[in-house]
Write a structure and sequence with these properties.
This protein has 605 residues and is an alpha/beta fold. The chain folds into three domains: 308 residues, ABC transporter involved in vitamin B12 uptake, BtuC (Orthogonal Bundle), CATH 1.10.3470; 173 residues, P-loop containing nucleotide triphosphate hydrolases (Rossmann fold, 3-Layer(aba) Sandwich), CATH 3.40.50; 80 residues, no CATH class. It is built from 24 helices and 14 strands. The strands form four sheets. Strands 10-11-12-7-13-14 form a six-stranded mixed sheet, sandwiched between helices. A four-stranded antiparallel sheet has the order 6-5-8-9, with helices on one face. Strands 1-4 form a two-stranded antiparallel sheet. Helix 3 crosses helix 9, helix 17 crosses helix 19 and helix 19 packs across helix 20. It is elongated, with a radius of gyration of 29 Å. The protein binds adenosine-5'-diphosphate and magnesium ion. The site of magnesium ion has 3 residues, from helix 15.
Length: 605
Amino acid sequence: MKPGRLAFLGLVALLAAVPLAAPQFWVTLGNYIGLYSIVALGLVLLTGVAGQTSFGQAAFVGLGAYTSAYLTTRYGTSPWLTLFIGLAFTAAVALAIGFITLRMRGHYLPLATIAWGISLYYLFGNLEMLGGHTGMTGIPALEIAGLELRDERRYYFLIWAFALAALWCTNNLLDSRPGRAIRSLKGGLEMAEAFGVDAARLKTVVFVYAALLASISGWLYAHLQRFVNPTPFGIHQGIEYLFMAVVGGAGSVWGAVLGATLITLLKQWLQEGGILMTLLRDGLEAVLPRGIVPSSNFELIMFGILLVVLLQRAPEGLWPWFSRVLPARRPPPIPPAEPLPARAHAAAADPLLDVRAARKAFGGLVAVNDLSFAIRRREIVGLIGPNGAGKSTTFNLISGGLPLTSGDVVFQGESIAGAPPYRIASRGIGRTFQHVKLIPAMSVLDNVALGAYLRGSTGVLRAALRLDRAEEARTRAEAAKAIERCGLAAHLHDGAGSLALGQQRIVEIARALMAAPTLLLLDEPAAGLRFLEKQELAALLRSLRAEGMTILLVEHDMDFVMGLTDRLVVMDFGEKLAEGLPAAIQADPKVREAYLGGVEEEAGA
Ligand code: ADP
Ligand code: MG
């Protein structure tokens, strides 16, 4: 048996034993840890993986709880039905909130989550029909096949069945096509979108997913307590949920359980006070000046201090530290599989790419100045020029990373000017970045597999239920092949961030190839490579051309460019300085002057 599975079964066995043997008090704690884990799990995905901080999750817990409380007490609706009504209602609210707030960047998003977290809390407290701040009583107990779950010990199994199912689904999701896309959101939207990910849509999906988990937890809570009031759904609790995710380790689903367990036990321990707390308090009172040690809420302050220390010592949370003692999981071998469907190459339009008077102005600076050039099929064209000439900006104008100020870009006979990057990617333009954009913590294999995003179709639901294994096997097999072709087979399972920078550029090429593009844009692919590696890269690009690919590349190494390219376009100060065969360009006095001028400047600087 695999060690990972063994650990999982061990945990299940341990969880199952608690209500059989432990005293009531521990069962109650176990119930709360389960409820909190479900919410924290949503935050692991939303905050830890997708990078969207939310302080407002408790409000979604409240939506689930209040929906069921209201419908079951007022209309006698079956709680099993209200679960789904609550989920639908929460999804609708989350969609509306997400639509407004997820466009915000930087600190505005967390601030907005505080704002709506507080608003919903007051709404719960002020709505007459929800019983105001006193809340609602008489919520019926759940029933399964005639068995009433009044007893906390029985309820424990229900909570943990939900928690484990949520863990399983979320873990599946992370290890899938949409999961890789979600993980790529943190690497900057530019990169995700270059592979066809509709980042705005995906962020909303993750937000709703996290809200639904919170809503389930709320429903379970309402029928466990059989009483609700607004207190557990306020911003206080929202902050605590976030703590659980962060303290546990927001990068792994198990971090949610660990965080929920630690915070719950820690709070319990501090609240109980006990001899240790009294000693600590007396000790502090003895050494510190009078009046500094607070007489009330001492445990809350200790809680805060402990959290700060914890986050200082383990900024990635405690899970990575904890998982080190577990047996390491060896990555499974990747069996060969049928390749993914490739793009149907459109009828040969020539030129393949036609850049027409493309212009990009950054304020007063014209980075690309009415640049025109065309690329035919199966050509390798080099875009060269001194630093700051506008080469990378030109790439971004083609790939949609930057909007054109004026002019047009025509690909396969159709204008792509103004289209978002993910649409341009879907038309068959793949790219790499001058400043490497990989997910460092993700394996080389997963980074490369992200490139095939547009060639797969698995959505969040299929992925969560693990119905995507056939497509996933094909994706992984093809990614492994692409990596091998690029000469990095030895690094398949290494974290992408552990590779040398030159190798990371090659990983980017493998990732771009996974999209089976018609046109490949490479921004300084050979930078940081050694001589032999450069030769291997040149051989790879030639063989790609032989297979029908068209390549536009920016490169500074003139030997590399001269030996590889069919044609060169030379830029200087945003304008086209010259265009032609490599030999003619090399002999061109204008080009020599531009380069020599550059060299003199650099030498003078
Ligand atoms: P190259 O890739 O040829 O070295 P770039 O296309 O990166 O040159 O840059 C061209 C010019 O545009 C430079 O002067 C650069 O400072 C400027 N530039 C590039 N991107 C931006 C931006 N996002 N905002 C403002 N100026 C920019
Ligand atoms: Mg550049």
